[in-house]
Amino acid sequence: MHPFRKAVENRDHAAIEALLAENVVFTSPVAFRPYPGKAITAAILRGVIRVFTDFRYVREIGSEDGRDHALVFTAKVGDMEINGCDFLHFDEEGRIDDFMVMVRPLSAAQALSAAMGAQFDRIKAEALGATEADDTASEGER
Q1: How many CB atoms lie within 10 A of CB 53?
Q2: CA angle (42 as vertex; 37, 47 as ends), nearest 5
Q3: Considering the entire predicted model, what is its pTM?
Q4: pLDDT per residue over 71-86, tens digit each?
């Protein structure tokens, strides 16, 4: 089992975040622009864990070199079933530097968009808090 899959299935936020590169780019299935950075990506993933119920990965597909991985999943958003895939690319250090999600059907994607939209103030606050904590830690090292 892939470490990212294990972390998600265990709802282990710290392990998920540890697998993200600082320069990770998250491409959402319901947002026009990608989200760059570890803090916002981790906050979005925490939001998704809050929104999805009955989440489970049903298949893993990996490249021979281990740098690309696809995790096919099913979940519910409210009472709608959603199918999707997490496409992960790993940098030289084994951290996720590109994270793209695709989902179907359209009605479930729309439900996901609404549910995540309702979470977005909290997501932004979590990301900002993480960024400010990182800045404070960096200042303490100087």
Answers
A1: 10
A2: 130
A3: 0.87
A4: 999 999 999 999 999 9
Q: How far apart are CA 79 and CA 46, in angstroms?
A: 20
Q: Give the residue among 44, 26, 66, 17 at the shortest CA–CA distance from 124.
A: 44
DSSP string across the chain: --HHHHHHHTT-HHHHHHTEEEEEEEE-SS-SS-EESHHHHHHHHHHHHHH-EEEEEEEEEE-TTSSEEEEEEEEEETTEEEEEEEEEEE-TTS-EEEEEEEEE-HHHHHHHHHHHHHHHHHHHHHHHHHHHHHHHHHHHH-
**Residues 111, 78: contact at Cβ < 8 Å?**
yes
Query: Per-residue pLDDT tens for 20-70?
Result: 999 999 999 998 899 999 999 999 999 999 999 999 999 999 999 989 999
- Provide the token pair at 125: 């606050």
